[in-house]
Iron ABC transporter substrate-binding protein
Amino acid sequence: MKKRLSSYLGALAAGAALLTVTACGGNATATPAAETSTITVEHAQGSTANVPVNPEKVFTFDLGVLDTMDALGVEPAGVPEAAYPDALKKYSDAKYTKIGSLKEPDFEAVSAGDPDLIIISGRTAGAYEELSKIAPTIDLSIDAAKPMGSFKEQAGKLGTIFNKSGEVEEKLAAVDTTVADTKAKAATAGKGLIVLTSGGEVTAYGAGSRFGIIHDVLGVPTAADVKSEGSHGEAISFEYIKQANPDLLYVINRDTAIGTEGAANPILDNELVQSTNAARNGKVINLDPAGWYIVGYGLNNVKAMVDAVAGSVA
């Protein structure tokens, strides 16, 4: 599990030859200015890695991290094969080394690419040991139990690694403002239910889940006691949705996210769902599938996620 960060970015002089930097998420010790600068980063594997500051060749398997790098103007060298959303479509170009899929690294391609830093997350967490043999590797998974705090820790670490701390703080402050405004409006906007559609099945997600930011951070009250654990949801029926009778129904279409289905929400077009308050009042909110299911927590994408919920409670 991730170690909780104690503070935002800071620097403490510890003598003429040594500089210690504390990033959101862990302590980072830099070498004297005359040498190549490195920092020690604590990460989700419960360990640390010595990481170069401003690494020239970065491989990332996490699209949320990629989204943050993109927001900061930092170019990766290697990315996974994926169904990239429009905002990140350029990374499908062959100029970026393809290093495997979102779940399975291509170890030969990674090794041949000789990266200075490898960044992984939940989908590739199991490959940590093997990847660490190739290059410094850090696991920047988001903790679903504290999504926004975990995201800020992740962004803070990336800001330190790429010397972009000021830009990270500025962007996070803007998100915080929108979050506060949204939370104030959500309190009286009615109860919400989050569902994921996939291959004709429907799964509900509640507080503390991978999409729990809607309840946990943005303050939308829950319409049902969803039985889920961590990032996993609860398989439900249309009758469940009718009984929960949400005022706000947030829908994520996994099939669209992974490129196997073009229609928005075909299986939700039925009488049971249409009888809910959400459907009757035009409050079935189709969230951006790729942004919510594939990308997740990145500096640009989190803003888009928050904005989508803000629009639903306005």
